Amino acid sequence: MSNLPFTFDIPIPGGVPTRVDKHVQRRLSALKGQFLDQTAYEKKLAEEDSLVYEVYEIHRPEIEGELLMGVSFIHPGKVGQEFYMTKGHFHTVLETAEVYYILQGEGFMVMETPEGETSVEPLSPGRILFVPPRWAHRSVCTSRQKDLVFFFVYPGNAGHDYGTIEQFGFRKLVLEGEGGIEIVDNPRYQGR
Question: What CATH number matches the domain at 22-185, 3.60.110.10, 2.60.120.200, 3.30.1330.10, 2.60.120.10?
Answer without folding.
Answer: 2.60.120.10
